[in-house]
Structures are given as structure tokens and as C-alpha cells.
Amino acid sequence: MATDSVVHQLAIRVSNRLRDERLMLVTAESCTGGMVAAAITDISGSSNWFERGFVTYSNQAKSEMIGVPADLIDKHGAVSEPVARAMAEGALRNSRAQVSLSITGVAGPGGGTESKPVGTVSFGWSNRLHTAVETKVFKGDREKIRTQATAHALRGILTLLDGRER
């Protein structure tokens, strides 16, 4: 993966914080297809702070791999804050990590709706004590949306590690 320089710099900052605090990260990614995991593992020594990554692109994978209830997806849609929360918390339950992030969205060019246009991405960040969720709408083509989502997810981990509320 040719990592965007902003993403790479954020991944270095996240990696340094995780290493310094002796924490492990787990990711649960849908529309980014593992881009956060790739950005983190581009950094030498990442096995010391990156526990695992789940790419749960399909709704079935979200349920089978990290325990997102199918009825939650049916009720809110895969691109929603309740599903992002369940993904972040499910990734923690299914790993040895202490912190997690999740991403689920519509990267385009198709798949958008009036209520969830292309670029809509829901995020979750959890540390087992607190889970924060947020939805953003990014502009651009598929690559730009996925890169922006990756950067935003990494910024969210820094916020979580700083103990700041979203």
C-alpha cells in the first residue's frame, strides 16, 4: 500500500504512543479494507503494539468474526454508529488488545443513499472502559474517502489515548 504521508505520520504517532504505554491495538475495518492495519504494520516493530486486524467487509463477517448482532445491522444499517460501536467492542472481545478502532462506511462510487451518501463513514474507538463513536462525511473519490477515513481513525486513537472525549 502506498501510504499517504499524513497517514504515515499519524501511524508513527499512534505507534509511538502505543509502544510507550505498552498497549496493543486491534482494528475492525470495513470500507478501508485493512488500510489502518497496513499503515500501522508499515512501521518496523509493530508486532509490539499491533495485536490483529479484522477486515469485516460483509455484514456476515461483522457478525461471525467480531459478534456484531445481525439484528443491529438490520435495524441501523452497516454504516451506523451502533454498528461501529459493536465492531470496536467486538474486536476487543475477540483479541488480546486493550484499544480498538472500527470503521464502516460507503467509499463509493456506488452504494450511497440519500440518508447515507457516498463518503459517509462511521467510526468507533474503545479502550474497554469507554467507547466513542462518530460519523463523518468525506468528499472525493474512493481512494480519497478511504485515505481520509484512515487518517481520521488514527487521530481518534490519539484522542482516546489522551483521555479526551469526542
Descriptive report:
With about 170 residues, the chain is of the alpha/beta class. It has one domain: CinA-like (Maf protein, Alpha-Beta Complex). The chain contains six helices and five strands. The protein has helices at about 5-20, 35-40, 60-65, 70-75, 80-95, 140-160; strands spanning about 25-30, 50-55, 100-105, 120-125, 130-135. It has a five-stranded mixed beta sheet, with helices on both faces. It starts with a helix and ends with a helix.
CATH superfamily: CinA-like
CATH architecture: Alpha-Beta Complex
Rg, nearest Å: 14 Å
Low-pLDDT sequence parts: none
Class by helix and strand content? alpha/beta
What's the helical proportion of residues?
Answer: 40-55%
Q: How many E-type strands? A: 5
Q: Please tell me the total number of domains.
A: 1
| Major sheet attributes | 5 strands, mixed
How are strands sequenced across the largest beta sheet? 2-1-3-4-5
What is the CATH C level class, in words?
Answer: Alpha Beta
What is the global morphology?
globular
Beta content comes to 15-25%
Any key phrases for this structure?
166 residues, alpha/beta, Maf protein, 5-stranded mixed β-sheet, 6 helices, 5 strands
